[in-house]
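Hmm, how's this folded?
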Amino acid sequence: MSISVAVSGASGYVGGEVLRVFSEHPDVEFGALAAHSSAGDALGVHQPHLRTLADRTIVETSAETLAGHDVVVLALPHGASGEIAAQLPPETLVIDCGADHRLASSADWAEYYGGEHSGTWPYGMPELITADGHQRDRLAGVKRIAVPGCNVTAVTLGLQPGVAAGVVDPTDVVAVLANGYSGAGKKLATNLLASEGLGAASAYGVGGVHRHIPEIVQNLGVAGADDVRISFTPTLVPMARGILATITAPIAPGVTAGEVREAWESAYADEPFVHLLPEGQWPTTAATLGANTCLVQVAVDRKAGRVVVVSAIDNLVKGTAGQALQSMNLALGLPETTGLQVLGVAP
């Protein structure tokens, strides 16, 4: 089986990671590698680590250059995918790594992103717990996939077992995340300069304004919550990749610590990419580097009356490109794990 894949946004961090991760798939052959401002350049100018593709010329992103492939991956800025996706043939599997098609609510899109909502696509988080099983059951044969946000992935996979099992109260969730700088993309900004970020940690998107909040609320609702209220604070820390999410919520009345752990063990016992660590061992971002894994640990803080969950992912792999490939496999009827790495890079 040969799967022709075009990638738009090939010169960015997400586009480069899509190329790296998808290149490990035994059936993938790359077609058009597209972008806007870098069109005409050799890919190696922007992605020097991708040696096998370094001599490929970046072409202009257009419906014409992207059409004719089995799969098109859009690694474009938020708000830029909708227009080009609408021009692609319905028989093409289109995977949007941006936010344009993640939200079910047009009102949420208008509030957090602005502009016209491009519509809702099948959601590319296979492990998302649903009323009738998991989201992976809804991805078979689809032709449009919306890849989740990276922060959303860390928080959802961290907390959803407790929500689904009813052992936590989702109306008082607090999530604080440590994020690597690649999550901000390649854009030029003073706060993203090395001289500003090295040796420093800084909060951003504070006070309920971060764009990933409605997506987290949406996911926890799918997992079984009637009402979700979350205080969400991301911070930039001096690392290139990774997200470490610390999430707390009140323990439900009468629930024991054993029942809490059982909820997470039961939820992730058979998942190939989400791993509940042995008690006492806590996730680190370093252990997820380069892998399509989410590492999770859960504990009960009895004095505070809260469940504490820590999850770690590589924001560019499980947070984006790896999850895109995982979802592509399901859409095309291939084994979900094909071409995906669970081994991290250390030290």
Notes: The chain has a mean pLDDT of 97.
